[in-house]
Amino acid sequence: MINLRYHIVSITAVFLALGLGIAMGSGFFGAATVDQVRKNVDGARREAADARAARDALSTELERRDQLERDFIEEGSETLFANDLADVPVVLLTVGGVDDDSLDALRAALESSRAEFEGTLQVNDKLVDEGAAEELAEAIGEPGLTGSALQAFVGSAVASEMLDHGAKPDGETSEAETIPTTTRALVEAGFLGYEVAPDGREEETLLGGSDYRYVVVTGVAPDVPDAAFLLPLLEALTVDDVAPVVVATAATGDDPAEVEETRGVPLAALRQDDAASDRLSTVDDLDELAGIVAVMQALERVGDAEPGHYGHGEGSDRLLPER
Q: pTM of the full predicted structure?
């Protein structure tokens, strides 16, 4: 009969055998295993170092190409665009929170060309400050308006003044010469900012002539939502006829796939609206040289050809206007 002592001895023997096996295995195979692990680690380190070197080289090459594009825009604009926009007054209308590099490149193109680049109107976030709503209503001479009705009226009023001073389709000529009151009041009250171009006319002459063309620049996450000002403005601009406007956006972000997926998002409302899409041009790649060229060429075509939608985001027709 097997007693308790027999069980204890058996179990002890099993554990002793396991211990001896582990000890012997470590003795025979431990050094080789450790050596292989070290080799694997060294290999992984080399691969990581190579990947970092390749990444740094690619980053340097991208920076070089970006700089070449900036130099090309700055130095080549006068040759590329001069004859197309000679003596044409242009105003840039934008909002905080858009891509600064793209704006700088566009300004360089406008400043270097022979267009009469008047400067930049920027929509300030004061425009959507509820605490400034009463001041806004007073500034535009409509003290009874509030909320969305007030925002819509502001966009419509500015659009009306832009059209009065803008280029006309079919060879018509604008006769408006007076400086607009609503736009001026919004600038003076700080709802709009106005930066005069280096070679532009004095600030007092803002929209003080005729045949203006406009570039509106927005983005994925502007400081002032498009629905609060730019969309009402653009809707009013396109109610009756083709507008002397090109609307542009620049894609931003570190993930290339996400950048391309969201490239056309800020322009979707305009490109999907039947009236707007037929009456103004859009560009969704202002962050690229092709986008700068498309904006300048689309400005040239205002009044002489059908508007188009350029870039490579959703809703675009082609990369550049047809020549």
A: 0.76
Residue that wins the pLDDT comparison between 237 and 115:
237
Instruction: Give the span between the Cα atoms of 161 and 109, in whole angstroms.
Output: 25
| C-alpha distance from residue 209 to each of 123, 162, 174, 185, 203 (Å) | 22, 11, 9, 18, 13
Give the rounded percent of residues in the chain with a pLDDT score beyond 90. 38
pLDDT by residue (tens digit) across 112-171?
888 888 889 999 999 999 999 999 999 999 998 888 899 889 999 999 999 888 887 655
Q: How far apart are CA 92 and CA 119, in angstroms?
A: 6
Question: Do 285 and 277 contact (CB within 8 A), yes or no?
Answer: no
CA atoms of 262 and 103, how far apart (whole Å):
19
Rounded Cα gap, residues 94 and 123, in angstroms: 6
Q: Provide CB contacts within 8 A for 253, sequence distance 6+.
A: 259, 262
